[in-house]
Amino acid sequence: MQVAVIGAGRMGRIRVEDLAADPRVSRVLVTNRTAERAVHLADDFDAAVVGWDDDALLDADAFIITTGTDTHLAHLQRLAPIGRPLLCEKPIALTLSDTRAAMDLMEAHGTALQIGFQRRFDAGLSALQGRIAAGELGTLYSLVLTAHDHQPSSREFIGGSGGIFRDMHVHDFDQIRWLTGEEITWVHATSAVREHQQYAEFDDADTTVIMGTTTGGTSFAITGTRHDPRGHDIRLEAFGTLDSVASGLTRRTPLDLLPPREDVPALALDARPYDGFVDRFRDAFRSETGAFVSFTLGDVDNPCPADSALESLRVAIACEESVRTGQPVTVADIITAGH
Questions:
Q1: Spatial CA neighbour of 211 closest among 239, 235, 187, 176
Q2: Do 169 and 212 form a contact (C-beta atoms < 8 A)?
């Protein structure tokens, strides 16, 4: 099978590398608005370059969209009528109305769309989801999520990101929905610029705290920062009536532990802290790309349907409304029209 990767940036490189290593993929096509970048990427992995507007691109059996968020809808509009599977990096769009329009377009043409929420393919989180689904944790009391970037973003990125809730925390909202199999009922969010003033220039934040519950009654708390001096820190703790489990706590977790009691053995961490989201989730991206190939071949169901993008974005907008009003916000009150 042939798979076309649209975009030759950081995510495009990840997808091309993983597709090139997959024996089920006979040919990888690469296209980019700046042709030189596509050529360099293709040369590194023995892929084929296709022109940005070349109809030969449309001969692929599946497509992966890795370009900037503001281009996703245009690519989906071009590719949807072909009717072949698509993997689109999150988000589909930065508004609910545009996201819904893209989903309606996919449905009208019978085109399958997988969303790029790579945390679903992280080995620890996947194992946790399986244990929760099997009832091994019993009734879930609560989830505690840590979402800390290593280095603050550039001004160029911040301006087009959609803000910390829509860009970063949508991953956390998708995790909660996926792990529990439930929707998020309400959220109460705070945000602030504590250190990095470039976020203030775009009415964004470098620090957040979010609380909420799911339809089944599970409480959750999320802490977010755009900077962690020790490294990239993505962790989740789940507490239930039968067990308590942590995912993402490894020797590479960027923490400095206070000295333990003399009768408690030290827990060795910080062997080499994660330096960014690619480092933290590189294996997950590989598994996600492989799952998309399996989905294209009809071997598995869609592992991350388009509604995951829509509903996670709805929660993000509810968080923004909560920050604006200082009050909890019911997620169902965030209707698609006007957002």
A1: 187
A2: no
Per-residue model confidence as pLDDT tens digits over 69-109: 889 999 999 999 999 999 999 999 999 999 999 999 999 99
Distance CA 184, CA 163 (A): 20
- pLDDT value at residue 214: 98
Rounded to the nearest 5°, which phi and psi values hold at 114? -100, 140
From residue 30, give the alpha-carbon distance in Å to each of 67, 89, 134, 330: 12, 16, 41, 43
Determine the Cα–Cα distance for residues 107 and 111; give it in Å rounded to an integer.
6
111-146 confidence digits (pLDDT tens): 999 999 999 999 999 999 999 999 999 999 999 999
How are beta strands 184-192 and 329-330 bridged, if at all?
A: antiparallel
> How many Å apart are CA 191 and CA 295, to the nearest integer?
38
Q: What angle, 0 to 180 degrees and rounded to 10, lies between the N-to-C axes of helices 10-20 and 277-296?
A: 50
Domains observed in the chain: 2-119 (3.40.50.720), 123-280+306-333 (3.30.360.10)
Ranges of the chain whose pLDDT falls below 50: none
